[in-house]
């Protein structure tokens, strides 16, 4: 376990082909009942093992027990009707069939506690757990009850906070909220987005993180990115607000993106998970590619606050591609560790 430049993945990893369709995002399960329960647990063990083998420092469950990063959480809540679906535009970008909020939302029991305990039992390294952020949750629903994005986000923030506290008690070291919606809805972001996120993270002693990206490497996102011009400056809206917030860590997309790297300066003082692996391209980065990204970024983030990572989840990639990308990430970080220790004669 490296304490300098600890590596991690954003969240999801590909699922084994006996559990879900390969290289397919949000694929239905191939098993059911007790076989599914056991299959998910086996997949979680494999995901941990693959991260260990690759040399990743902070271990995730690879999101092996969820079909979708938002709806799997929402499925466990009361007040949401999954039969009564509506088609809505997600992230202002693509249409999807989503569940409807029909009454007051509530969490009757833990959603991920058993899975987090299973992860904790399988590694002695620090672990990270991902949850959807409040704004991204409301953007993946049709709301017939509250009829206020802000009010519903606040209710979800309270529910997320209950869940996060249980995960923390189970030994989760980093709790990460995924908020790709922060790169799209800038008025909401300023008015209540960061406040709702802080509410979700309130009172946690674990490290709290927010992941903001340009999405999985799917067609709708690739096409959207093509419209964003030569410089992607969306982070300029969220980073100053997050720098002032109670959130400890920010996870961002960097390698192969058009994000001007100097925007990371806006986060100075926070921990930064930098995407040094492209998840939209099956080509494997070399360790030197990873090191090159990290060297650039180190001009804008203190070395003791840098966490080399992937741009987003790797669920849609082939398993071997994800393994090789994790190995490259770990090897690239090692190049920079050696450079940093060589530059400090006292160590
Ligand atoms: Zn992402």
TrEMBL record:
Q: What class of enzyme is it?
A: transferase
Q: Which UniProt keyword terms apply here?
A: Metal-binding, Methyltransferase, Transferase, Zinc
Q: Which InterPro entries match?
A: Met_Synth_C/arc (IPR002629), Met_Synthase_cat (IPR016456), UROD/MetE-like_sf (IPR038071)
Show where the Cobalamin-independent methionine synthase MetE C-terminal/archaeal domain sits.
Answer: 5-330
Name this polypeptide is given? 5-methyltetrahydropteroyltriglutamate--homocysteine methyltransferase
Q: Does the keyword Transmembrane helix apply?
A: no
Instruction: From the UniProt record, give one GO term of the biological process aspect.
Output: methylation
Q: Which NCBIfam families match?
A: PRK09121.1
Any one GO MF term held by the record is: zinc ion binding
Q: Name one Pfam family in it.
A: Meth_synt_2
Q: What is its EC number?
A: 2.1.1.14
Domain of life, per lineage? Bacteria
User: What does this protein need as cofactor?
Assistant: Zn(2+)
């Amino acid at each position: 376990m490296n304490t300098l430049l600890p590596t991690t993945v954003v969240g999801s990893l590909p699922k084994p082909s006996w559990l879900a369709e390969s290289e397919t995002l949000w694929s239905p399960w191939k098993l059911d009942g007790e076989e599914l329960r056991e299959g998910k647990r086996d997949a979680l063990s494999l995901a941990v093992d693959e991260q260990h083998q690759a040399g990743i420092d902070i271990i995730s469950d690879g999101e092996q027990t969820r079909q979708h990063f938002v709806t799997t959480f929402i499925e466990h809540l009361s007040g949401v009707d999954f039969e009564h679906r509506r088609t809505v535009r997600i992230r202002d970008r693509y249409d999807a069939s989503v569940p409807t909020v029909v009454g007051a939302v509530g969490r009757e029991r833990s959603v991920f506690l058993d899975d987090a305990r299973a992860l904790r039992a399988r590694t002695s390294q620090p672990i990270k757990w991902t949850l959807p952020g409040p704004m991204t949750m409301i953007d993946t629903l049709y709301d017939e009850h509250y009829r206020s994005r802000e009010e519903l986000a606040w209710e979800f923030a309270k529910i997320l906070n209950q869940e996060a506290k249980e995960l923390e008690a189970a030994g989760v070291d980093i709790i990460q909220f995924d908020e790709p919606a922060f790169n799209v809805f800038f008025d909401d972001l300023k008015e209540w987005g960061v406040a709702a996120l802080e509410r979700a993270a309130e009172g946690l002693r674990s490290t709290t993180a927010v992941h903001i990206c340009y999405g999985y490497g799917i067609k709708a996102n690739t096409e959207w990115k093509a419209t964003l011009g030569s410089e992607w400056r969306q982070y300029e809206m969220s980073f100053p607000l997050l720098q002032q917030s109670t959130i400890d860590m920010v996870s961002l997309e960097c390698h192969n993106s058009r994000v001007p790297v100097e925007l990371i300066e806006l986060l100075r003082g926070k921990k930064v998970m930098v995407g040094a692996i492209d998840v939209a391209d099956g080509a494997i980065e070399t360790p030197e590619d990873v090191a090159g990204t990290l060297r650039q970024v180190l001009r804008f983030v203190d070395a003791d606050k840098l966490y080399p990572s992937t741009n987003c989840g790797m669920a849609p990639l082939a398993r071997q591609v994800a393994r090789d990308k994790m190995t490259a990430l770990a090897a690239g970080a090692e190049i920079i560790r050696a450079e940093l220790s060589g530059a400090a004669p006292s160590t």
